[in-house]
Specification:
Helix 3 packs antiparallel against helix 5, helix 6 runs parallel beside helix 8 and helix 9 runs antiparallel to helix 10. The protein is globular. The strands form five sheets. A three-stranded antiparallel beta sheet has the order 1-3-2, covered by helices on one side. The chain is of the alpha+beta class. Helices cover 41% and strands 14% of the residues. One of its GO terms (cellular component) is nucleus.
C-alpha cells in the first residue's frame, strides 16, 4: 500500500510539484539515517496530473488532535515528537534547505494505531458523551511532509512564508527570513501539542503581533524600527500600535485572554515544565539571530535530563 499525492493539471501547480519532487529526491539522496522526512518512492505524469508516490502513513498531528477533541499530548510524547522534528529540520538546514511551512497538518504519525485511556479533564471543546477517554498514539514515530514550499537559503528572502499561526515575527515585519523561521514554527507546534490548541489563533497581522507581545513581552525596538513599508502601519513611536490600532472588541478580547508563556505551559504540563519553558524560550526568541538552531535545541536538557529521569 502506498499514498499518492495527485496535483491538479494546472501549470503553476505542475511547476510547484516538479520543485517538490526535486526537493524530495535531494533529501532522499543524502538521507542515510532515514530522518523523519517523508520518503518519495516514485512519481509519474497521468493525463497532465503529476502524481507523487509516498510510503503510506497515519493521520497528521492536527487530525489526531481534532479527533481527540483538541486534548493535549502527554509530555513524554511531546518530547519524542519534538526530538524527531528537530532532527529532521537539522538535517534539512545542513543541506541548506528551509521547509517554510511547518505545522501540525504537515507532520504525520507513521502508524494510525492508538489506544484509549481514561481522561477526566473534559476539554472545553469536547462533547459530553464519550469524553472521559482520550486517544494516545501507540507509536510516537512521525514523518514531516509537504516540501512544496521548501526553498534553498538565499540572501534577502522577504516574500511571505508559513501558514499564519506558525509565522515568525521577522516574516510579518518584512525583515527577510532564513532558517530561524522554521525554528519559530517548531516552537508554536510544541505549545499546541502541550495545550491541544493553536497558540496564535488570528488572521490579522497587528493582532498577531499583539498576541506575541502578550505571551512573550514587548517586541524589540531594533526589529520594529526596521519594519518594511507594509508593516510600518502597525508601529507608532517605536512600539506596536496596540491597543490603539485594534479593529474590534473581539480582537481585543482574543489578545487579552492569552497568558504568558510560563503560565500557559504550567497550566498544561506537570513534569519537565521548567525544562520545556526554557526550550520554548530559546525556540521562540523574537530576534532570529538569538533563536536556537535545530542542532542547539537537540542538546537542550529537555531532551537529555528528561531521559535520565525516565530511567
Amino acid at each position: 500500500m502506498v499514498a499518492i499525492k495527485i496535483i491538479r493539471g494546472i501549470k503553476k501547480y505542475r511547476d510547484a510539484a516538479m520543485i517538490e519532487i526535486g526537493m524530495l529526491e535531494q533529501l532522499g539522496k543524502y538521507d542515510e539515517s532515514r530522518s523523519s522526512c517523508v520518503q518519495i518512492r516514485n512519481w509519474f505524469d497521468y493525463r497532465n496530473h503529476i502524481c507523487i508516490v509516498f510510503e503510506r502513513l497515519g493521520p497528521s498531528l492536527y487530525d489526531f488532535l481534532r479527533k481527540n477533541n483538541y486534548r493535549s499530548f502527554p509530555i513524554a510524547l511531546v518530547r519524542e515528537v519534538a526530538k524527531q522534528l528537530l532532527e529532521c529540520i537539522a538535517f534539512m538546514h545542513e543541506l541548506r534547505l528551509i521547509h517554510t511551512d511547518l505545522k501540525p497538518e504537515n507532520i504525520l504519525l507513521v502508524s494510525p494505531e492508538y489506544i484509549k485511556v481514561p481522561d477526566y479533564k473534559v476539554s472545553s471543546r469536547s462533547p459530553k458523551e464519550g469524553s472521559y477517554y482520550k486517544r494516545l498514539p501507540k507509536s510516537s514515530a512521525i514523518k514531516v511532509i509537504d516540501f512544496g514550499s521548501t526553498t534553498y537559503d538565499q540572501q534577502d528572502q522577504s516574500y511571505v512564508v508559513s501558514t499564519r499561526h506558525y509565522r515568525a515575527p521577522e516574516v510579518i515585519l518584512g525583515l527577510g527570513w532564513s532558517y530561524p523561521c522554521d525554528i519559530w514554527s517548531v516552537g508554536c507546534i510544541l505549545v499546541e501539542l502541550c495545550t491541544g490548541e493553536a497558540l496564535f489563533q488570528t488572521h490579522e497581522n497587528l493582532e498577531h503581533l499583539a498576541m506575541m507581545e502578550r505571551v512573550f513581552g514587548p517586541l524589540p525596538y531594533h526589529m520594529l524600527k526596521r519594519a518594511d513599508r507594509q508593516s510600518e502601519k502597525y508601529i507608532r513611536k517605536g512600539r506596536l500600535n496596540w491597543p490603539e490600532g485594534c479593529t474590534s472588541r473581539e480582537s481585543m478580547k482574543a489578545v487579552m485572554k492569552l497568558p504568558r508563556l510560563q503560565n500557559l505551559v504550567m497550566q498544561n504540563v506537570d513534569q519537565s515544565a521548567g525544562d520545556l519553558i526554557d526550550l520554548l524560550q530559546g525556540l521562540l526568541k523574537y530576534d532570529p539571530a538569538d533563536r536556537h538552531t535545530a542542532q542547539e535545541a537537540l542538546s537542550h536538557p529537555f531532551f537529555t535530563e528528561g531521559f535520565e529521569r525516565r530511567r
